[in-house]
Amino acid sequence: MKNKQITPINKEKVMRESDFIVSKTDTKGRITYGNRIFIEFSGYSEKELLGTQHNVIRHPDMPRVVFKLLWDTLNQHKEIFAYVKNMAKDGSFYWVFANVTPSFDNSGKLVGHYSVRRKPKTSSIQIIEPIYKQLLAEEQKHSAKDAMNASYQLLVSVLQSKGLTYDELVLAI
Questions:
Q1: For a Cys staple, 100 with which of 68, 115, 136, 145, CB 3.0–4.6 Å?
Q2: Distance, CA of 54 to CA of 32 (rounded, Å)
Q3: pLDDT tier at 1 (50, 70, 90 boundaries)?
Q4: Are 142 and 65 in contact, with CB atoms under 8 Å apart?
Q5: What range defines the domain where residue 149 resides?
Q6: What mean pLDDT comes out for the span 42-49?
Q7: How many angstroms from the chain centroid is the CA of residue 112?
Q8: Cβ–Cβ < 8 Å for 107, 100
Q9: H/E element, 112
Q10: pLDDT of amino acid 7
Q11: What is the DSSP code string of 69-110?
Q12: Helices 144-162 & 64-75, crossing angle to 10 degrees?
């Protein structure tokens, strides 16, 4: 199941302060668990979600470089925090502040990933959204081959101008 057939609409779903969206994936990013809040906000049924790539909820406004950063960090067996704009099955969107961590079995083997998302502060979205728009615009100016590198270089430049790493930025805002 892919969300490419879904047309984004300008309708925001706002998480409640008490909401926590929880999901688990295997090492390939296929959903193995989603809590009821995840099902509610995504608009998909549990049956539709299980076994599907987690990027089924990826909003086209999200720059690819953020997900590259996420996967690069997880592949180093480190956790990452990120602001993410997701898209529901009906095309509406919802922002989350995500914490994604690698999951290991008792022998230390990577078995998947665990993500907990909560409602982000409006002020944080007002800071991160223009940065993401810049990154996306940079990706769109380049060929598929060059887009990721160009966007990454812009991200590094933006972060250097603020004197912060990505982790420091997202935790500070």
A1: 115
A2: 10
A3: low
A4: no
A5: 20-172
A6: 98
A7: 16
A8: no
A9: strand 110-118
A10: 95
A11: HHHHHHHTT--EEEEEEEE-TTS-EEEEEEEEEEEE-TTS-E
A12: 80
CA-CA distances (angstroms) from residue 11 to 15, 47, 84, 95? 13, 25, 16, 12
Answer yes or no: is 69 within a domain. Answer: yes
The encoded tokens of residue 159 equal 């972060």
Residue 136 lies in a domain: yes
Does the pLDDT value for residue 2 go beyond 60? no
Q: What pLDDT, in 10s, does the model give residues 71-90?
A: 999 999 999 999 999 999 99
Question: CB 156: neighbour CB atoms within 10 A?
Answer: 13
For tokens 């295997």, what's the residue? Answer: 26
11, part of any domain: no
What's the average model confidence in pLDDT over 54-59? 96
Q: What is the CATH number of the domain that holds 141?
A: 3.30.450.20
Residue type, 111: V
Q: Which residue has the tokens 């960090």?
A: 73
